[in-house]
Amino acid sequence: MLVALLGFLRRDFLFQMSYKVGMLYSVGSVLAQLLTVFFVSRLFGDHLPKEIARYGRDYFSFALVGLAFLDYMYVSMQTFSQHIRIAQLMGTLEAMLQSPLHPFAVIAFSGAYTYLWTVLRSMVFIIGGVLLGADMSSANILSALVFVMLIVLAFSGIGIASSAMTLYLKQSDPLTGLLGGISFLLGGIVFPVQSLPSWLQKVAWFLPMTHAVEGLRLAILQGQGIFDLLEHAGFLGIWTVIFFPLAFFILKAVIKALSAEGSFGAY
Amino acid sequence: MEAIVVKEVSKYYVKPVSLRDLFTFFRHRQKIWAVRGVSFQVAPKEIVGIVGPNGAGKTTLLKVISGLLLANNGEVLVCGIPAQRAKHLVGYCISEARSFFLRLSGIENLRFFSALYGLSFKEARQRIAWLIETLALDGVAKRQVMSYSEGMKQRLAIARALLHNPRVLLLDEISRGLDPAMRIRLYDLIRELAKKEGVAVLIASHNLEEIRDLTDRVYLMKDGVFAGAGTYKELEPLITQTFLGESCLSHS
Q1: Do B104 and A8 make contact, defined as CB atoms within 8 angstroms?
Q2: Which of A41, B164, B204, B223 has its CA 20 to 30 A from that of B38?
Q3: What are the residue ranges of helices labelled H in B25-117?
């Protein structure tokens, strides 16, 4: 299994290296996003709205945490189905599934490099932010890591289900894009959830991203431990427990159906 | 023990779901039979051919044996193990020219697929070096696959099928795109694998020359069933008749 995982990581690294401009663009976009937030934060000065002031840090630190970890949600929801779709179109899916590696592993390992790249991007984001003056001196690293893991698990359940739909329907799944958009809007990424109308706030607290961002902010900006954040961690945990097995059940059914139909190679 | 055992295997495809299917609760979905009640065995060291015109069901049968496709009826055993769980024993040369990562080099493609078969870095390096030399890919192995000719891709596909030293080799139209010299070299390699290393080889083709030169036994496949079995010499009149019939039809 480890050999196969390393094989996928190596393949995707070489693939990315063959698109050098794309790689530069990816790094450039992180810096552009970082600088945008930095300059927007200067507009606030010392006059912070109370919804942000309650975190005890400036707007730059507040927004930085939301944006640095946003990619984990998008990657978890979309990377598996994107890789499956590319493999379908390139014609490599059937060749990979011909190997003894389990189809679950083929799908999971396909996203491994993107996760590594996301870790790197978020680290560049955080380090760049600290260099620009973001205050994360009291961050509880352990709590933050637990929340990152919970984001990955909670959203990769949806991502695996999405890859199953892509496998079967031979087209990208629009639902994850929609959920991603709603999560960005209501999840408190660049503005606090409390700024939303009260009825929308109720909707927002049903989204896992809202709990993930809130948990991360309290862990990084206020240094709260995981036991102080059980409410948010628990919500993500329940989401994971429901969606992860469901996703595997859907994927198993799809693989069985495609083995019967013989349409792995179709696109 | 037989390397491949195929017992009463049938496989059909169904047409995609239509509006009519919704109203008939999927009871009348049209079945397209690709393989019907086929049985045969291949022993280690044997080279067996399946010959037949386009659409005869050859590729479907190979995919069922490779474990990529589930049969609707019947049983397939590879070295005594159900085909779905015997992928590590099977090398399947897929007849799909697009099945490589085109932006990676030939050698990187082989490294990637060797990882999927669980070969260690050292094992993969040795095996890949041997395959590159044997299949005369030395000069192009470090070039991106997108620059390969049809014949080079075909040789790379054969190298991929042999990466994990399989006990059963399934070859689908292997000589497509190969020049005569490479074809002879490939035939020698297949004979050597079968006779010296005991690999069971099943070749599906409509290239009669290939079937005649390589195989010990032949099955003639037509409309999903075996229409004849024997040596190539025994079946030659029937094979010729089948192919000429198809040729006459296509001319008319």
Answers
A1: no
A2: B164
A3: 58-66, 106-116
Range of the domain at B240: 4-251
**Closest of A176, A261, A1, A260 to residue A106, by C-alpha:** A1
pTM: 0.85
- Distance from C-alpha of B58 to C-alpha of B35, rounded to nearest angstrom: 8
Q: How does residue B252 score in pLDDT terms, banded at 50, 70 and 90?
A: very low
- Pairing state between β B47-51 and B31-42: unpaired
ipTM of the complex: 0.84
- Reply yes or no on whether the pLDDT at B246 is more than 70: no
In 3D space, the residue among B92, B42, B37, B41 whose CA is nearest the CA of residue B63 turns out to be B92
Reported for A222-229, long-range contacts at CB under 8 A and 24+ positions apart, including other chains, are: A222/A55, A222/A56, A222/A138, A223/A138, A223/A139, A223/A140, A224/A140, A224/A143, A225/A140, A225/A142, A225/A143, A226/A140, A226/A142, A226/A143, A226/A146, A229/A143, A229/A147
CA separation for the pair A188, B184 (Å, rounded): 67
**Which DSSP symbol is given to B95?**
S
pLDDT in tens, B33-92: 889 999 999 999 999 999 988 888 999 999 999 998 889 999 999 999 999 899 999 999
Q: Flag if A11 and B101 touch (Cβ within 8 Å).
A: yes
Closest chain B residue to A97 measured between Cα atoms?
Answer: B68
- Tell me the C-alpha distance between A155 and A74, whole Å: 8
Closest-CA distance, A10 to chain B, in angstroms, reads: 8
Of B69, B111, B113, the CB nearest to A99: B113
pLDDT digits (tens, 9 = 90+) for A189-222: 889 898 899 999 999 999 999 999 999 999 999 9
- Indicate whether B105 pLDDT > 90: yes
Q: What is the CATH number for B77?
A: 3.40.50.300
Position B250 pLDDT exceeds 60: no
Q: A261, B72: Cβ pair inside 8 Å?
A: no
Residue A254 structure tokens: 């799809």
Please state whether B67 falls in left (phi above 0), alpha (psi between -120 and 50) or beta: left
Query: Best mutation site among A2, A99, A169, A170 for testing chain B: the one with the most B CBs within 10 Å?
Result: A99
The set of residues, in sequence order, having a beta carbon less than 8 Å from that of B115 and lying 6+ positions away, is A3, A4, A6, A7, A8, A10, B124
pLDDT at A25: 85
Report d(CA A16, CA B196) in Å as an integer: 42
Extents of the domains making up chain A: 21-261
B251 or A46, greater pLDDT: A46
Alpha-helical runs (H) found in chain B:
19-23, 58-66, 106-116, 121-134, 150-162, 180-197, 208-214, 232-251
